[in-house]
């Protein structure tokens, strides 16, 4: 029998590079929400892939940014923790991208004592000439890393990267039960699904001023009943979220319900409410309550 391998594989990169798409492709489930807007991922989310003789614990972290308020500082703390416990780093860039937005993080990659795979994403959108040019650029920038061209969205070379991860994992017993898919509770995925629909359906500042809290999650054999509160920072934002005669909020609820029924494989009834929670993004007590500043 093969020796059992297990380890933490942490995915880092600038915003909008496709980290969540890759994580979901590896896990085979939609654990991380995906939108075209930057800063979609706010937390560090673990996705666990189990085999007979391996356990890969993948970690999707927020895109690396220069923080403008306390919430973003907390998001960057999740990235720092991903450097600290990794057995292997996946540094994801897209064609045409240069170094990380934070020089300190970039230097950590340069001087990493653990293996780093640089994943050059969205190669389906590049010519062969551009791809070769990019590989050469990154070989000069980071001579010690392995470079793997991929397309997370088209699933190109994702399996090849996963096989390389398995080769590099240390021998270890599993860290989590073998039937576990993630470290997050059900309510977390409800909150994230609702937040994804807000990111998709609203413009400008609205999605970034929103946090979701699920106050009730009651499951029986036939149905899951959910009551969630959407927090905003100002009264004017509350009106925008609700929309004319509640139409905008109703649309968010319908779209979230469809996704959650797929995720839980069960009928879902969802009630949404909107509350003003002034300046929560700069309030350390509120941030702790929402799972930041741990």
TrEMBL record:
Q: Where does GTP bind?
A: 13-20, 60-64, 121-124
Q: Where is this region: G3?
A: 60-63
Show the segment(s) annotated as G1: 13-20
Name where it's found: Cytoplasm; Cell membrane
Annotated membrane topology is:
Peripheral membrane protein
First-listed, main subcellular location of the protein, grouped into a coarse class: cytoplasm
Q: Where is this region: G2?
A: 39-43
Superkingdom of origin: Bacteria
Q: Name one GO molecular function term.
A: ribosomal small subunit binding
Keywords for this entry? Cell membrane, Cytoplasm, GTP-binding, Membrane, Nucleotide-binding, Ribosome biogenesis, RNA-binding, rRNA-binding
InterPro entries according to UniProt: G_ERA_dom, GTP-bd, GTPase_Era-like, KH_dom-like_a/b, KH_dom_type_2, KH_sf_prok-type, P-loop_NTPase, Small_GTP-bd
One of the GO BP terms on file? ribosomal small subunit assembly
- The Era-type G domain covers which part of the protein? 5-174
Pfam families attached to this UniProt entry: KH_2, MMR_HSR1
Q: Which GO terms describe its cellular component?
A: cytosol; plasma membrane
Region: G4; residue ranges are 121-124
Q: Where is the stretch described as G5?
A: 150-152
> Would the keyword Cytoplasm be found if you checked this record's keyword annotation?
yes
| Family membership noted in the UniProt record | Belongs to the TRAFAC class TrmE-Era-EngA-EngB-Septin-like GTPase superfamily. Era GTPase family.
PANTHER family xrefs: GTPASE ERA (PTHR42698), GTPASE ERA, MITOCHONDRIAL (PTHR42698:SF1)
Its function?
An essential GTPase that binds both GDP and GTP, with rapid nucleotide exchange. Plays a role in 16S rRNA processing and 30S ribosomal subunit biogenesis and possibly also in cell cycle regulation and energy metabolism.
Subunit note:
Monomer.
Q: What is this protein called?
A: GTPase Era
Which gene underlies this protein?
Answer: era
């Amino acid at each position: 029998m093969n020796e059992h391998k297990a380890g933490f594989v942490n995915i880092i990169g600038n915003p909008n590079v496709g980290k969540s798409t890759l994580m979901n492709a590896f896990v085979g489930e939609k654990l991380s929400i995906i939108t075209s807007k930057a800063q979609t991922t706010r937390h560090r989310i673990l996705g666990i892939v189990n085999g007979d003789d391996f356990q890969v614990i993948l970690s999707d972290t927020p895109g690396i940014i220069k923080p403008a308020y306390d919430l973003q500082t907390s998001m960057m703390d999740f990235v720092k923790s991903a450097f600290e416990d990794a057995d292997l780093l996946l540094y994801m860039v897209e064609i045409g991208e240069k170094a990380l937005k934070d020089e300190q993080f970039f230097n950590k990659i340069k001087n990493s004592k653990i293996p780093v795979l640089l994943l050059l994403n969205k190669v389906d959108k590049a010519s062969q000439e551009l791809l070769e040019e990019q590989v050469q650029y990154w070989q000069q920038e980071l001579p010690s890393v392995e470079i793997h061209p991929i397309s997370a969205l088209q699933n190109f070379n994702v399996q090849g990267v996963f096989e390389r991860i398995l080769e590099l994992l240390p021998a270890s017993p599993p860290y989590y039960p073998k039937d576990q898919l993630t470290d997050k509770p059900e309510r977390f995925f409800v909150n994230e699904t609702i937040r994804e629909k807000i990111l998709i359906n609203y413009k400008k500042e609205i999605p970034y001023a929103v946090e979701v809290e699920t106050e009730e999650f009651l499951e029986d054999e036939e149905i899951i009943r959910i009551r969630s509160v959407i927090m905003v920072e100002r009264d004017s934002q509350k009106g925008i979220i609700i929309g004319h005669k509640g139409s905008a909020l109703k649309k968010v609820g319908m779209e979230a319900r469809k996704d959650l029924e797929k995720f839980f494989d069960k009928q879902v009834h969802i009630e949404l409410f909107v509350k003003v929670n002034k300046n929560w993004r700069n309030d350390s007590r509120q941030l702790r309550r929402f799972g930041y500043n741990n």
